[in-house]
Specification:
heterodimer, A: 116 residues, alpha+beta, five-stranded antiparallel sheet, elongated, B: 103 residues, mainly alpha, 5 helices, 0% strand
Chain lengths: 116, 103
């Protein structure tokens, strides 16, 4: 059984338990692409917030390849894929009550988005 | 899940007010919970995203009214009992002992 040793601690703490994977996976999107977030409502784990679902945004940058939370949280494997910082305009998220000159960036996995 | 943790866009929760000169741990039990989490994560008995999901599954009222490290503690209790590392009875018995002041 693996045991936590003192020398492992600084690595774990300072890497913040990174879930980045060293895998050659093709990206579905690239910076500048227009996307629409999927309207999924799984009973299990997801990192697609409700206020983003069904909303249109723009890929800002590609963070690289990571494990997929929706599957790994339930023992259904890594399903490695790209994660992106995606920009959404405030008016897109909140309608007329949103600030006309404000945007929000959130990190989304490949499987959370469809192309527009 | 569409749980209590997914609060983006909600009104009425007030502004985020960062604590000035916030200590890493407010109380010693928080330090121990941090250590327990690190040690058990390294054991590979559960994955980080399972840990997060177990916090999402907390009773919503308790989630909103408890601290960050209390969320971690509830997660450990949930995961360890669900995975059979300890039993719920062992956990409750030990809590009762500690409440009575036993070492």
């Amino acid at each position: 059984m693996p045991v936590l040793t003192a020398d492992m601690v600084p690595v774990m703490v300072f890497s913040g338990a990174s879930q980045r994977l060293d895998a050659k996976i093709a990206a579905k999107f690239k910076p500048g692409d227009e996307i629409v977030a999927r309207n999924i409502n799984p009973a299990g784990h997801t990192r697609l917030p409700r206020y983003i679902r069904g909303k249109r945004g723009t890929i800002d940058r590609d963070h690289g390849v990571f494990v997929f939370p929706d599957t790994i949280a339930h023992g259904r494997g890594d399903k490695p894929q790209h994660v992106y910082s995606v920009r959404f305009e405030a008016r897109e998220l909140w309608g007329e009550d949103g600030h006309p000159n404000q945007s929000l960036y959130t990190d989304l996995w490949d499987d959370y988005m469809d192309p527009v | 899940m569409n749980g209590i943790h997914d609060i983006g866009g909600m009104h009425g929760l007030g502004p985020i007010e960062p604590e000035e000169n916030e200590p890493v741990f407010h109380e010693d039990w928080e330090r121990r919970v941090f250590g327990m989490t690190l040690a058990t994560l390294a054991l590979g008995q559960y994955h980080l995203d399972e840990f997060r999901h177990s916090i999402e599954r907390m009773d919503p009222a308790r989630y909103l009214s408890s601290s960050y490290y209390e969320h971690w503690l509830v997660s450990l209790e949930t995961l360890f009992t669900e995975k059979g590392i300890i039993t719920r009875e062992e956990l409750e018995a030990r809590k009762a002992e500690l409440a009575r002041g036993a070492a």
